Amino acid sequence: MTNTKNNKYKDLFLGLLFDAIGMLSFSVIGIGEFTDVVWAPVSYWLMTRMYKGTAGKAAGMVSFVEELIPGTDFIPSFTLMWLYTYVISGSKLDKVITKK
Known about the structure:
Helix content is about 80%, strand content about 0%. By secondary structure, the chain is mainly alpha-helical. α1 (about 1-25) runs antiparallel to α4 (about 75-100).
């Protein structure tokens, strides 16, 4: 149980860090969109490594597209995936375990 809890908070910290890196292009006027072209495939790769399976691949694609579309850098895709994984899906998993 402790290992799962440690992974949970490690993933939250990394997600917040990666969302902050993705938002840094707002601060660089003129070359911000170029950095998004570089960051988009990196964010896809990171998302699929942090979250396995179909959900991780889908979130990676959303993150990739979100980074490529101008003006959508403010969307915290890593943090939203963390919420989905540990809060929304996690609560469903807890209910299934307690019923058995």
